[in-house]
Amino acid sequence: MAQVAMVMNLDKCIGCHTCSVTCKQTWTNRQGTEYVWFNNVETRPGQGYPRRYEDQETWRGGWELRRGKLVPRSGGRLRRLSRIFANPELPELSDYYEPWTYDYANLTDAPLGDDVPTAPPHSLIDGRPMAISAGPNWDDDLGGGPEHTAKDPLLERISETVRLEYQDAFMFYLPRICEHCLNPSCVAVCPSGAMYKRVEDGIVLVDQDRCRGWRMCVSGCPYKKVYFNHSSGKAEKCTFCYPRIEAGEPTVCSETCVGRLRYLGVILYDADRVDRAAAVPDEKDLYEAQLECFLDPRDPEVIRAAEASGIPHDWLTAARRSPVHALISQYRVALPLHPEYRTMPMVWYVPPLSPIVDALSKGGHDGEDAGNLFGAIDTLRIPLSYLAELFTAGDVEPVAAALRRLGAMRAHMRHHNLGEEPDPDIAASVGMDPTA
Ligand code: SF4
Ligand code: SF4
């Protein structure tokens, strides 16, 4: 089968939110969708949008394996509620954010003020004071550093601790859209049969005529990428810009991305392997299991079988030409977001290759010289364990391997572009010809 897919290179995202704004102008600039961002960009580490969506125990009680099948966990909310067919627990508007508008009439005439907001609004949640998400990416405004500390007498008093913490501070941006999963839980939980996955390209859509507003999809999507339109009473979600895809155009978010970091393409996969892959017992095997579902679009056997199954010639060409398959399966530098959710997501990420801290202090080329690549990968500014929690269910090795390949590629290209003798060890590590 064929599936449209996207790979985003996180090293290139500058957090400008252009993708979010152009998507919003195209798809959710309507009554009832004011709080909705089909595309959002989260600052990491952070709570995300909606707030704490990754806290699966809170939202749906999690999943468990029973006789090789993935089912809602016993005693979990999703199981109880699907039995009585009531509405599962849902994020509240404050978990997204309260949309606001501006007093445009006075926007330019109002006098300058001295007050700058420095803290998000707080509320008591589960008895604890918690920051309410005051915008789709409030976490972006919470960063700080030594200069910030120096201006604050309270922080100055505890400066040693704070400085040490800031010294190790790290952040990066994580743009997110619906994953158009191979095993979409939003489709599985919809009681009306309104959520569906298109056979021809794998895009997951909501049939607006069939939707009855149960919102099981909102609860059932672990990525929280289905939204409820309060005006129409129907669920809505990212459409992967299907009218544009059908016309051979890229999605709006891809076309307008300032960092040019979104790669679109077609992946060929074996549908028979998907169920088995989604049910592998150990979460840490899910990344490899999903990779095993994908087929090589240059393999003549695969092409013959795909043609026989009716996949159009254009799509096979797209599968061969797009960099998506190569980034995911050939070079293995792109990784899935939260594979442990077991929905087989189809938007993958090249993890950020942050500087190697030790090497930087020694004045290296961003720590990417040959000696550093293989020895110092565990002293990256962004902890490998944090990236592994996001992309490989906590398994550090595939992330380290992807970063090593990325670093090696950069080092190889630097040698090449500077006209220097390429290091054969580096070239070999990324499968490149040192003379190329
Ligand atoms: Fe469905 Fe959520 Fe997967 Fe999108 S990310 S296909 S809404 S389960
Ligand atoms: Fe990142 Fe591109 Fe979106 Fe800007 S437009 S936030 S660079 S993904």
From TrEMBL:
Keyword Thylakoid assigned: no
Protein keywords: 4Fe-4S, Electron transport, Iron, Iron-sulfur, Metal-binding, Oxidoreductase, Repeat, Transport
EC number: 1.7.99.4
Enzyme class: oxidoreductase
Subcellular location as annotated: Cell envelope
Domain of life, source organism: Bacteria
One GO-annotated biological process of the protein: anaerobic respiration
GO CC aspect terms: cell envelope; membrane; nitrate reductase complex
Gene Ontology MF annotations: 4 iron, 4 sulfur cluster binding; electron transfer activity; metal ion binding; nitrate reductase activity
Cofactors named for this entry: [4Fe-4S] cluster; [3Fe-4S] cluster
Identification of the protein by name: Nitrate reductase subunit beta
Organism: Streptomyces buecherae
Full protein segment contained here: 1 to 436 of 528
